[in-house]
Amino acid sequence: MKSYGQFCPLALASEIIGERWTPLVLRELMFGAARFNAIQRGVPRMSPTLLAQRLRMLQAAGIIERRRGEHSATEYGLTPAGAELAPVIEGLAVWGKSWLPASLSATEADPDLIMWDLHRRLDLDRMPPGRTVIRFGFSDQPPPKRYRWIVRAAEGVQLCISDPGFEVDLFVETDSRTITWVWYGDISLKKALAEGAITLDGPRRLRATFPSWLLLSPLAAVPRNLPPTAR
Amino acid sequence: MKSYGQFCPLALASEIIGERWTPLVLRELMFGAARFNAIQRGVPRMSPTLLAQRLRMLQAAGIIERRRGEHSATEYGLTPAGAELAPVIEGLAVWGKSWLPASLSATEADPDLIMWDLHRRLDLDRMPPGRTVIRFGFSDQPPPKRYRWIVRAAEGVQLCISDPGFEVDLFVETDSRTITWVWYGDISLKKALAEGAITLDGPRRLRATFPSWLLLSPLAAVPRNLPPTAR
DNA sequence: CGGTATCCCCCGCGATACTG
DNA sequence: CAGTATCGCGGGGGATACCG
Known about the structure:
The structure is a homodimer. Chain A is an alpha+beta fold.
């Protein structure tokens, strides 16, 4: 991005934060994504070339750092400067939820976006111990995105794009718009279940505790000043 | 700007705030600039076409509103949504001051940028009553920008690009880099005066009270985590 | 004063393919 | 897994002139 030619700290900051995709990349890092491919799953429409470019830029600006993680894999993490940016990004997100009209178009209702966020926010302590496999079905989606699996095991939680082969413990059936509205707090999970917009199939205990370990977006509690439209 | 295709409130907010020049335009509005030309003086390198376009966009997004002011002049102001954006913008500015390297190139040391900010932050109550004319001289600037005048009168404060004709009460002689560093708090005004980087010529009383009514940037008090370079 | 109209350039970005 | 390489285009925005 071309410089503003101003010494003003806001101008300098905007040259970095104002670049396309950068706030969303930072969001992924702030949610704990460390690996290139993990970051990319949060911004799937960003080309790898551009993501690499942004990561280099953020590193040069002292906002993130590259590390060698386990198995000498490349990992990215926030520097102290980057960490102090988190409240600003969060403030922007809260403002967006408060004040921007929320209409949900088809492309914005990509269930993978929600599933990616959702699977790393599960409250593992409230889930049953041992391996748990949950299959999410999205009735409005064509075959390639029709089903997603969350596998919770001792190693951690994984989101699978294709059938992992394990026996499914809980079947969740919904559609991409419902899961999106629920995730962002525009419909309560309770209401979605009551209305049948989300249905559960599996052991009674798992069904009953479902709302306790399926955590919603951190923004779910932020009220909207404009009512959501286009449900 | 092309949509991110995400429903995430951060993505939606970034589509607006992330557009080129938009944060700086908002900054002007937050500092109280209401008229088109007043806004433009804070972002002089932005073309009028683009400014008009951004103002329209911000209005459509519900962030600013157009009003008819005195003499049916067009005025812009923040809506409640816009007002709630102020802390976010301010947070970004504070972060920039804290963490971004501050090197001052020639184009960034435009004294007009500082004078425009500075003239609307004068503490009028601490200035002598009645008309006061101050001429700022920038020793490093070629003729068209060599001098600027601030005229404080009953009607308010005005920044003049050419000699307004009144007798000058106080002559301030400095250079564009010094005034910029001082404005942003990287050199104390006291030190700049002591070192002769700023010299005053005028009545003793006006000289003595100068540091009390020449207020600095709101960011002046924010410490830098990286030391400023290229003084 | 408060903007439009117009033109054109350039480069940011998207898409796709490929590699150590 | 973690990125490069390459190409082509679209349109954002810079510059300048002009208008009500």
